[in-house]
Amino acid sequence: MLDAKAYYQRLLEYEKEIRKVTDFVPEVAIVLGSGLGDFAKNLEVEAVIDYGDLEGFPVSTAPGHAGQYIFGTLNGVKMVCMKGRIHYYEGYDMSEVVLPLRLMRVLGAKTVIITNAVGCMNENFSVGSFMVSRDCIASFVPSPLIGPNIDEFGPRFPDMSEIYDRETIDKVLRIGRETGLEVHEGVFIQLTGPQYETASEIRMYKALGADCCGMSSAVEAITAAHMGMKVCGISCITNMCTGISKTKLSGEEVIEVGNRVSGDFEILIKELVRNL
Ligand code: HPA
Q1: pLDDT digits (tens, 9 = 90+) for 114-132
Q2: Exposure check for the chain: N or C terminus, fewer CB within 10 A?
C-alpha cells in the first residue's frame, strides 16, 4: 500500500532541495505536452531544476519529454514549467505519475494549465486545431487518489463537478476568436496507452461522450482539483482517431504534427497566461 506519510515527506524533501537553489514562488504551473516542449524559451528564466537532481524522482522515458522544472516569469506572471511528464504506460504507479504535479503545488502554484497532444474522434474538429476541456472521463485509468488520503492536500472524497475552471475555459475560447485560432470546447478521455486505440474502442468512447483522447492529463487534472488548484486543460489535436483517420497512427506522426503547430499552441498559451 502507498505510504502516504513517506510520500508527503518526500515532497517536502524535494521542496527543501529546490529551495536551496531558488526561492522563486510560482503562481501558475504548466505541464508541457508534446509540441510545447520549448515553451519555456518565452520565459525570463530564474532557475532550472533537473528531475535527476532530486533523489528518487520519477524520470520520463517518453520521447520529447526532457525532465526539468523551469522557473521564470512570463508577462509578469511567475510560472513553473514541467518540461517532461511521467506517463502511466511507462510503468510507474499512478501516485508517481502525479508526483511532479503535486510538487508544483507544494512550491506555491495555485493554477495549472495542463497541455497535451490528443487524437480526435469528433469529426467537427480538425487536425491542427485545439480543444479546451470542459470535462474529462478517467474511468479507464486508476485514480491517482487511490491509497491513504493525504489530508494536507485535500479531502478523501473530492468533488469533481467543476474539475476545469469555467471562467478559464471561456477565456481560452475568447482568445481563440480574437487570434483566429480554431479552439473547440469538449470532453477529454484518458486511456492508458501505449497502444493506440482500436476502431471499436473509439466508437465506444465517442458513444460515451468523449471528443478527444490521450494517454495523460486527466489524472493530473484530478490531482490538481484535489489540491484545490484552478485547472485548465488544453489539447493540441495531432490526429484523427483510429477508424476516422485514413492513415495508420504513429508516435512519429503525433510528434511531427505537434511540432508543426507548436507556434500556434505557444500563441494560445501565452495569451492565456497574459489573461489569467
Ligand atoms: N490516441 C491516444 N493518444 C494520443 C493520440 C491518439 O490517437 N494522439 C495523440 N495522443
Answers
A1: 999 999 999 999 999 999 9
A2: N
Q: Is the CB of 212 under 6 A from ligand 1?
A: no
Instruction: Tell the residue nearest (CA) to atom 8 of ligand 1.
Output: 119
| Identity at 53, one-letter amino acid code | D
Is residue 273 within 8 Å of 28, Cβ to Cβ?
A: yes
Average pLDDT over residues 58-73: 82
Q: Which cell is 243 given?
A: 477508424
249 lines ligand 1 (CB under 6 A): yes
Q: Spell out the residues 6+ positions from residue 195 whose beta carbon is closer than 8 angstroms to its own.
A: none
- For cell 502511466, name the residue: 88
Domains (ranges, CATH) in the chain?
4-275 (3.40.50.1580)
Residue 117 CA to ligand 1 centre (angstroms): 7
* CA 238 / ligand 1 centre spacing (Å): 8
Burial environment of residue 225 by CB neighbours within 10 A (0 to 12, 13 to 18, 19 or more): buried
Is the whole-model pTM more than 0.85? yes
Q: List the beta strands (DSSP E) in the chain.
A: 28-32, 44-50, 68-74, 77-83, 111-120, 130-137, 183-190, 212-214, 230-240
What average pLDDT does the segment 166-191 reach? 97
Atom of ligand 1 nearest to the CA of 214: 3
pLDDT higher than threshold 80 for residue 65: no
Please tell me the distance from the alpha carbon of residue 194 to that of residue 275, in angstroms, as a whole number: 35
Q: Is the CB of 235 under 6 A from ligand 1?
A: no
pLDDT at 38: 87
